[in-house]
Amino acid sequence: MKTRITEMFGIEHPIIQGGMHFVGFAELAAAVSNAGGLGIITGLTQKTPEDLANEIARCKEMTDKPFGVNVTFLPVVNAPDYPGIIKVIIDGGVKVVETAGNNPAEYLPALKEAGVKVIHKCTAVRHALKAQKIGCDAVSVDGFECGGHPGEDDIPNMILLPRAADELEIPFVSSGGMADARSLVASLAMGAEGMNMGTRFLATKEAPVHENVKQAILEATELDTRLVMRPLRNTERVLNNPAVEKILATEKAKGKELEFGDIAAEVAGVYPRVMMEGEVECGAWSCGMVAGLINDIPTCDELISRIMNDAEAMIRQRLSGML
């Protein structure tokens, strides 16, 4: 399948693996890229720029296909070494960067000069237009269904994607609620040039996370996620568990007096314990409503091949047969 996204990133299929904390290691990124999609290493999971450089080198040993690096710009006082991170991305020959969080404008000139394509993750059309204005090459439009941070507008993809198509000139992919051929064909119909999947890639054989995480996603339905940190305007969609219930109870009890410190024990620093050790009930971890559509743990190649084969059949047979 050829779209503006496959052409821009030099990939076979219009499928991107989202950047996920303590998930986006070289093993998963390479597996997705080898299957014809665009794998993504999560930059901030690596403790230092030097560690990220090593992870990029590891990925290059596993694939000769294009892959990208996710860089999330956090609104924190003690910020990561972003100049160092950008430098090792460029020096490592990476040609795609997925940015998220705060405005990446400060780092675009260096990336552009190095020939790096930038796709920025947005949860609102106004943010996507801003990304287009500052020079991003593409955007990932993230609907309310998504795992992680859906923004504060609560617009689902059935509305958000057509609105993005109405306004944008640069290509965009759908993100949030994406799992299969139906997701891809629907996204294309609404104006997207491909799709970004996060939670779905968590439940693959190559995802370098504990088996408990994969089983928790398999067992979950579309009813099993919750929104936490909403009173702090840092909303995150997570899989429900006792720690999440405790967060929600604290948020309700504290009301407008809530501070991050009140819930930090269940939120801060839990990802290594969840993803590496399999302590899936120790805290809040991102998971999309799309868990309700995930029923197996295939390899990345099996997943992407199935999506593309089913999408072609859907377009050529079911849809064209309706005309």
Radius of gyration: 19 Å
Termini distance?
22 Å
Low-confidence stretches: none
Structural class: alpha/beta
Shape: globular
Number of helices: 14
What value does the average pLDDT take? 97
Helix content: 40-55%
Strand order of the largest sheet: 1-8-7-6-5-4-3-2
Work out the number of β strands: 10
Summarize the biggest pleated sheet.
8 strands, parallel
Share of residues in strands: 5-15%
Task: Sketch the topology as an H/E string, one letter per element.
Answer: HEHEHEHEHEHEHEHEHHEEHHHH
Brief overview:
With 323 residues, this protein is α/β, with parallel strands linked by helices. It is built from 14 helices and 10 strands. α2 (26-34) runs parallel beside α3 (49-62).
Q: Could you walk me through the main structural features you see in this protein, from its secondary elements to its overall organization?
A:
With 323 residues, the protein is α/β, with parallel strands linked by helices. The chain has 14 helices and ten strands. Strands 1-8-7-6-5-4-3-2 form an eight-stranded parallel beta sheet. A hairpin with a 7-residue loop joins strand 9 (225-228) and strand 10 (236-239). Helix 2 runs parallel beside helix 3, helix 3 (49-62) packs parallel to helix 4 (82-91) and helix 8 crosses helix 14 (300-319).
